[in-house]
Design goal:
It is a single chain. The longest helix has 18 residues. The protein has a six-stranded mixed beta sheet. A six-stranded mixed beta sheet has the order 9-10-11-12-13-14. The protein has a two-stranded antiparallel sheet with strand order 5-6. It has ten helices and 14 strands. The chain is an alpha/beta fold and about 280 residues long. The chain is globular and about 55 Å long.
């Protein structure tokens, strides 16, 4: 097995929304805001090269939305999914499986593209798409809080393609275990990978950036923030005990982090690039 960090693009989100009730002077220490109160965000996927399978975890925002849509998210930088795959020696047609942690647009938007005729179609024509069944149903009938994040043009074409699969036994179906978290959204799926003697957890939106490690630092987007805090506490305590490494999807600066216990709770220990930590 080999792992590759895939930068699909960078964007910005309101810092207050990203940190909920936490005062700006506190969260801005780790995530500085621009003049419009927006913080820098990555949309970082993880590519798993495992025998004949090439598994992509999440796909970023994609590029099919309107200019008006993207204007709300202040895209920045030069990264995109195709160039990042090419840098690693791959093409999107090589992908055999796409695993969605959840179906918010910044995690699944790149899975569907618009062809020259304006028709939505899978961006990965040879891949099976994997979601949790309960989360899929949750996304099809979104609550008011999440409706702007679950976009029909990202979700319905996946089902219509015939490429949709539901995760039931992740270890058997995908080759790795998963954790299920319900605070951010129903049945968010976090891959847990055993790699070169270490355990790596794809942290998704449980811990979107290293600045979100303190337990109360919970996004305003979370549907059940009190549950998120309980899930984070249990997860981070175990992560320190078992010496997990966290792969961060949304941290614009840090790909991979280790953790340590402090008098204030679990905090950042060290930051790494995936390829430098394990060797390219």
């Amino acid at each position: 097995m080999r792992l590759h960090a895939i930068e699909t693009g960078h964007f910005k989100l309101d810092g207050g929304a990203m940190f909920g009730v936490v005062p700006k002077p506190l969260w801005e220490r780790t995530n500085p805001a621009d003049e419009m109160n927006r913080i820098k965000m990555a949309a970082r996927s993880l590519l798993i090269e495992d025998g004949s399978r090439l598994i992509l975890i999440d796909t970023g925002l994609g590029n099919k939305q309107s200019e008006k849509f993207f204007s709300h998210y202040a895209l920045w930088g030069d990264f995109n999914l195709d160039s990042s795959l090419k840098e690693k020696g791959f093409h999107r047609d090589d992908i055999t499986d796409v695993v969605f942690t959840h179906l918010h647009f910044d995690h699944c938007g790149g899975a569907i593209t618009r062809n020259k005729k304006g028709i939505y179609e899978p961006a990965f024509k040879n891949a099976r798409f994997w979601s949790h069944k309960d989360h899929w149903q949750w996304a099809l009938e979104p609550n008011v809080r999440e409706a702007a994040s679950f976009l029909p043009e990202n979700i319905l074409p996946i089902e219509e393609s015939g490429q949709l699969n539901f995760v039931q036994d992740a270890k058997k179906e995908l080759g790795f275990d998963v954790l299920l978290m319900d605070g951010h959204t129903e049945k968010q799926l976090l891959p847990v990978l055993q790699y070169k003697g270490k355990t790596i957890v794809f942290a998704a939106d449980l811990i979107p950036t290293s600045g979100h490690l303190p337990i109360p630092y919970v996004m305003g987007y979370d549907t059940r923030p009190l549950l998120t805090m309980n899930e984070k506490k249990r997860f981070l305590d175990k992560a320190v005990e078992k010496e997990y490494l966290l792969f961060l999807e949304h941290d614009a600066q840090n790909e991979l982090i280790s953790l340590k216990n402090t008098e204030k709770g679990v905090r950042l220990d060290q930051c790494f690039r995936l390829d430098s930590y394990f060797g390219s």
